[in-house]
Write a sequence for this structure.
């Protein structure tokens, strides 16, 4: 099987090759490419499927041997610099390859149905293939140079996909926001890479780890400078994985097509940051202060994301803040030293969140024929309700994803979240309280989304009917029409209902439902038949050099699981009380999403809802401090350039022009005139000199 590892570079090459072929065809033969649109999608799905099969084969072989394989080729060789390129296969990279390719294949199949009527169908598959190839290249990177190259490719592809519908100003603004925010983190990542190269004279992961270990043991390194370099290195994952305070781009990224939202949130862009921290974990582990920073950033992100998801009216943005919160859990796990728990939650969350996003896309796809192709309506949960009756498969799959993310057994995220909660509490009670609180909020906002979207009566047609009747009454008054016309308008059939999505959108939901239910078996704390306990942890130990305790305490497991489920159940019960169909029927549209009970806490709840809807005012803070300051600086620079620098240059030109024009009239060709001018000039200079001399003497 060594031959298999030697050709592992084919895995990212295949989707990249498909993207290049589609892109060249689209640019060179636009009409011909459009006529072969389904062939383009079929080739993309086929090439990605081959990459997925190769990834599974590598995973199976890696499980059997548990040995890291590295293949390098020289790239830049000088007296002072030696840079090699290649790829690295170890337990972490092999499991990530399977994760990314499986999610990508399901997203591509789903996209064939979701984007079928879009004019940019072929362009979308071109971007999608390049995006996935960039993530696969990042996973296989053996050094920081390749990591940075693929890191930037991921950022470029996200810019293209978030702004896919660039004719909409909101989408164009969202992709720019994501691009600029990530540039801040990427600049820090670049400085951190250069800093560690200055410290260790290497870009290779294992070499940096070994040399840094020696330098720290010998006390021959400035720890303050090393921690600064590590923080700069960590800035990249902070931005890419939407961690506080560089999380602001993630909700706006929902302006892109829903399939790309699923891929970004499940297996590519935001997962890239977690993967890089996991890859660099042996380096961060040598710096305890750095691990504390990672843990606290993760904890703040987790509780903040959950708090902001509570009041959002937009279905996709609520899921986006959910992703932010779960990424905080992963970063928290890595920060407290629970490497396996962080990776395990990355895996379970990826399948659950891909299922949720694709199910939400199915809902949006069903809403659009009813309320129109307007994201403000088709994604607004105010217009939804009762979708389970009209879209049963979508409703069931969304419910399964919801139960998983809430941490309800036996679904996938229960097993990973339970480990994180337990180990966080053992590490620090303060961090534990934050993690437990986040679990309760997760149960609340996830079931809020489910109940508002799928239970009760469908509100879209009712709101549309009320709006249409109001507009008809106004029109009737203006045009002085008789009452019969209004009666006829009322008798028309205005109530429409969404329908279940097509097979190529529903089948991926059913496929993703399987790992959402079963993938937790990778880390069961006890043996069940042929399934051994802690399979993933025992396998990852070889790449993380961590010790793992194999003894199992039933009492500790049951008590932790009971507390975890109880806290999630409190959140779920609160959502059932506030957002049950019976409760919703008693409220008007304005209080539908965020009810404010009339009690002593009403002002606090109202202020909290406003704080949550306004994204904790963090975006406004950046608007005032960064955006306005940058605009003012740009305006000042423009003023200086236009009225000072340009004025000097233009003034010199105008002076030369005017002086030249004035002197031109003195050029008459008569010697006597020239002699007269010379005499007058000499006389003037002599008089001027005499006056100056007298003034000096005085």
């Amino acid at each position: 099987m060594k031959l298999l590892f030697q050709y592992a570079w084919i895995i990212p090459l295949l989707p990249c090759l498909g993207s290049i072929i589609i892109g060249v065809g689209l640019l060179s033969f636009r009409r011909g490419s459009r006529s072969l649109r389904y062939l383009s999608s079929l080739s993309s799905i086929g090439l990605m499927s081959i990459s997925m099969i190769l990834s599974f084969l590598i995973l199976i072989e890696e499980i059997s041997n548990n040995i890291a394989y590295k293949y390098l080729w020289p790239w830049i060789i000088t007296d002072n610099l030696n840079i090699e390129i290649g790829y690295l296969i170890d337990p972490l990279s092999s499991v990530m390859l399977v994760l990314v390719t499986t999610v990508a294949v399901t997203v591509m199949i789903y996209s064939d149905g979701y984007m079928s009527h879009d004019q940019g169908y072929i362009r979308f598959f071109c971007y999608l293939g390049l995006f996935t190839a960039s993530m696969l290249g990042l996973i296989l990177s053996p050094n920081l140079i390749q990591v940075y190259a693929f890191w930037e490719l991921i950022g470029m592809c996200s810019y293209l996909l978030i702004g896919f519908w660039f004719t909409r100003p909101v989408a164009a603004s969202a992709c720019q926001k994501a691009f600029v925010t990530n540039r801040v983190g990427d600049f820090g990542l670049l400085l951190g890479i250069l800093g560690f190269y200055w410290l260790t004279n290497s870009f290779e992961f294992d070499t940096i780890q070994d040399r840094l270990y020696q330098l720290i043991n010998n006390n021959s390194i400035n720890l303050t400078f090393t921690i600064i370099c590590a923080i700069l290195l960590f800035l990249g994952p902070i931005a890419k994985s939407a961690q506080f305070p560089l999380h602001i781009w993630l909700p706006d990224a929902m302006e892109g097509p829903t399939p790309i939202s699923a891929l970004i949130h499940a297996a590519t862009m935001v997962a890239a940051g977690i993967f890089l921290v996991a890859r660099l974990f042996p380096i961060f582990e040598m710096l305890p202060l750095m691990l504390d920073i990672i843990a606290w950033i993760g904890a703040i992100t987790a509780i903040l994301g959950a708090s902001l998801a509570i009041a959002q009216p937009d279905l996709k943005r609520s899921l986006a803040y959910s992703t932010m919160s779960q990424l905080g859990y992963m970063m928290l796990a890595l920060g407290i030293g629970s490497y396996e728990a962080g990776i395990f939650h990355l895996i379970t969350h990826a399948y659950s969140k891909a299922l949720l996003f694709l199910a939400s896309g199915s809902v949006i796809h069903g809403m659009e024929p009813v309320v129109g192709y307007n994201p403000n309506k088709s994604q607004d949960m105010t217009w939804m309700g009762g979708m389970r009756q009209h879209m049963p498969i979508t409703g069931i799959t969304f419910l399964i994803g919801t139960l998983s993310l809430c941490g309800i057994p036996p679904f996938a995220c229960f097993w990973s979240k339970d480990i994180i909660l337990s180990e966080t509490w053992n590490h620090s009670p303060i961090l534990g309280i934050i993690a437990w609180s986040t679990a309760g909020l997760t149960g609340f906002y996830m079931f809020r989304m489910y109940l508002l979207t799928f239970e009760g009566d469908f509100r879209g047609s009712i709101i549309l009917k009320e709006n249409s009747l109001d507009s008809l009454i106004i029109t009737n008054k203006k045009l002085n029409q008789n009452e019969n016309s209004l009666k006829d308008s009322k008798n028309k059939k205005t109530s429409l209902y969404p329908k279940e999505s097509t097979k190529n959108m529903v089948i991926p939901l059913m496929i993703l439902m399987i790992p959402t239910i079963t993938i937790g078996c990778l880390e069961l704390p006890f043996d069940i038949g042929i399934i051994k306990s802690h399979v993933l942890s025992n396998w990852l130990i070889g790449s993380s050099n961590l010790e793992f305790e194999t003894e199992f305490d039933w009492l500790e497991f049951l008590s932790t699981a009971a507390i975890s489920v109880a806290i999630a159940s409190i959140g779920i019960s609160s959502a059932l009380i506030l957002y049950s169909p019976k409760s919703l029927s008693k409220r008007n549209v304005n209080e539908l999403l965020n009810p404010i009970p009339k009690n002593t806490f009403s002002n606090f709840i109202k202020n909290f809802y406003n704080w949550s809807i306004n994204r904790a005012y963090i975006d406004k803070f950046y608007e005032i401090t960064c955006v306005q300051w940058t605009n003012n600086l740009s305006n000042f620079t423009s003023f200086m350039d236009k009225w000072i620098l340009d004025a000097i240059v233009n003034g010199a030109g105008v002076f030369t022009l005017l002086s030249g024009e004035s002197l031109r009239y003195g050029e008459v060709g008569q010697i006597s005139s020239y002699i007269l001018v010379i005499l007058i000039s000499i006389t003037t200079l002599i008089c001027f000199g005499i006056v100056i001399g007298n003034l000096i003497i005085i």
Notes: Strands lie at 69-77, 82-89. The chain has a mean pLDDT of 85. The longest helix spans residues 618-664.
